Amino acid sequence: MTKITPELLIEAYKIGVFPMANNQDDAKIDFFDPDPRGIIPLESFHVSRSLRKLIRKGIFKVISAIKIINKNNINKCKIKLDIYGLKFENIKFKDEFIQYKGRLENNERLKTMSKYDCLILPSLTEGLPMTLIESMSIGLPFITTKVGAIEDLLIQNYPYICNFNIGSIKNKINSFINDFTNNKTLVNELISKNNELFLKKFKYSIFENNIKKFIY
After folding, report:
1. Is 113 within 8 Å of 162 (Cβ atoms)?
2. For tag attachment on the chain, is the N or C end more exposed, with fewer CB atoms within 10 Å?
3. What is the pLDDT of residues 154-184, one digit of tens each?
4. Which residue in 56, 58, 51 sits closest to 172, CA to CA?
5. Closest to 49 (Cα-Cα) out of 15, 78, 87, 20
6. Is the separation of the CB atoms in 142 and 119 below 8 Å?
7. Domain 49-215: which CATH class?
8. Contact call for residues 142 and 169 (beta carbons, < 8 A)
9. How large is the average pLDDT for residues 110-116?
């Protein structure tokens, strides 16, 4: 077997091939020539403002988490992910369980949201997301990150708080699925407490009065 020197490795990378074993127990190392891939010059690469906003919403991490869960659930039910919003219209999906549904019109929001089992909003930055307030009002559980003012929307010890990474999102989705399947009582208690918090702090008349306190 040819000895892999630093010089050989550099030359291999230059032409797009790399050394790798077939599996972790294989002592033999071969060189692999994958399908052509793009090279991004980092010194001149620019991420647009719209793309940065899209990334901060965590949608790509949610998609990856769903794909991992569905891949591991070979003989079990698959999770269906529907994505709404103008920001996501240019994302290409090649998965039968992941669909882009377009913009969610204001007069259809609550009716559409009430058809689902869970909302996922793992943003990196948020203010006070109206989507979560709407979820609380109609009894829709949600998985979210504790950023911005989201903490003000959470009941004490809310169990479906994730970090902004694929592994954490995946674990919280699995946790919700387990509770939804095997512990409906817990889920119903969370829904009830979320709705109580909504009525206490975010019912329109109360929300309006709270806003006025800050304005006047």
Report:
1. no
2. C
3. 999 999 999 999 999 999 999 999 999 999 9
4. 58
5. 87
6. yes
7. alpha beta
8. no
9. 93
Rounded Cα distance, 142 and 100, in Å: 19
Strands (E), 46-204: 81-84, 98-102, 119-121, 142-144
- 99 to 89, 91, 95: CA distances (angstroms): 10, 10, 8
Instruction: Give span(s): CATH 3.40.50.2000, the chain.
Output: 49-215
Q: Which residue in 66, 60, 62, 68 sits closest to 80, CA to CA?
A: 66
Express each pLDDT in 45-98 by its tens digit: 777 777 787 778 888 899 999 999 998 876 678 899 999 876 666 666 678 899
Euclidean distance between CA atoms 195 and 174, whole angstroms: 23
Give every CB contact of residue 164 below 8 A, 6+ residues apart in sequence: 58, 61, 122, 123, 124, 145, 147
Q: Rounded to whole angstroms, how far apart are CA atoms 91 and 116?
A: 22
* pLDDT for position 215: 43
Q: What is the pTM of this model?
A: 0.72
